[in-house]
């Protein structure tokens, strides 16, 4: 089965054109969750933070199914959306300016070469000044839930251990939350993210970058666009208005390679 691997600021994804339901035929009797886990494994599979299936839509240019590397589904993924949009445009599935279905709603995107800008659904459930597991932070849902903690020195944070503790806190059950540690500077924010579903720190998180920029706007008065420097060292821009009605994420994507999956990758 043909696939492509793309990455956006260090978030990498396996993208498959599934308009003819080839993925279901490929995995056979194996569950989707198990298949995704095996394909996304770093040492025994292709290796990726997530897997994206591009499918037909009656209301948009296409729809996607998005899976984290553990096989769980996610409502939204900002960097995944940028990679999916570039894939769909270059494969002739969608025009340069497109719309596609996600569990979070209809997403708009514009592709300009490697640069892709996506308009996210309106963030909601903003809660400032929460105390969770002894840490003060702020919550917002930017398509998926995010808890934002401001720190003095981002390099001093044990992202995996502290992030895991907050991710599984009773405050955010039953679905849990992603956790962003943010160092705010005069002209930008530095972000490190613990992602649920991956259950580790990732090199970048699009919706986490958006959450961090929006909260920095609320707490420190940072103005749009906010530049976000992620763990990979790459940069994203987050655009927003005061009411958070129009929120955009913009940055580069890299088309890593195209390949063919063999059925034996699914063998236990």
User: Which radius of gyration do the C-alpha atoms yield?
Assistant: 18 Å
Strand content: 35-45%
The helical percent reads 10-25%
Q: H/E order of the elements?
A: EEHHEEHEEEEEEHEEEHEEEE
The DSSP helix count reads 5
Structural class of the secondary elements? Answer: alpha+beta
Question: Average pLDDT, to the nearest integer?
Answer: 96
CATH class term of the largest domain: Alpha Beta
Within CATH, the superfamily of the largest domain carries the name Diaminopimelate Epimerase, Chain A, domain 1
Return the CATH topology of the largest domain: Diaminopimelate Epimerase, Chain A, domain 1
In whole angstroms, the N-to-C terminal distance is 18 Å
Tell me the domain tally. 2
Please tally the β strands and state the result. Answer: 17
Q: What is the correct CATH architecture of the largest domain?
A: Roll
Largest sheet: 17 strands, mixed
Low-confidence stretches: none
